[in-house]
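User: quick one, sequence for these tokens?
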């Protein structure tokens, strides 16, 4: 059900491609036509969900350039999850991009954080 459509790219060595395909378990909280949302295994806030596209794109800039409607789908899916989680007081969306930002999984993922006041600037 979560498998990417045949025209979507997949990286055989990618952790999040395997989660999308159901080959590695994850606590999935929401799916849309193009995205899957699941809880981060190491949560940094009471709600910490990762929203990923079903197809493989390495980062936010790449998906925005190659598949802008799918980039938008990440954000609307995050909005829907925030509503589902009752984050009426606000939430934060983050795309870490590259080593200096701490990106460790090179399948683009939108962090949705909420459920407590969040400090700014981030570390
Ligand atoms: P990044 O540092 O690339 O922005 O975020 C990667 C996120 O993926 C981290 O917050 C990390 O906790 C999460 N993560 C890494 N491996 C797994 C996993 O196997 N399952 C889940 N649900 N999250 C993971
Ligand atoms: Zn991937």
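Assistant:
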């Amino acid at each position: 059900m979560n498998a990417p459509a045949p025209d979507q790219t997949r990286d055989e060595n990618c952790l999040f491609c395997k989660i999308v395909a159901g080959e590695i378990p994850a606590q999935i909280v929401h799916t849309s036509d193009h995205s899957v949302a699941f809880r981060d295994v190491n949560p940094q806030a009471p709600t910490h969900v990762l929203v990923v596209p079903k197809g493989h794109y390495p980062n936010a800039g790449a998906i925005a350039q190659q598949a802008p409607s799918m980039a938008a789908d990440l954000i609307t899916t995050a909005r829907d999850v925030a509503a589902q989680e009752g984050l009426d007081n606000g939430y934060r969306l983050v795309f870490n991009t590259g080593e200096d930002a701490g990106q460790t999984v090179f399948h683009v993922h939108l962090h949705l954080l909420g459920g407590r006041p969040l400090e700014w600037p981030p570390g």
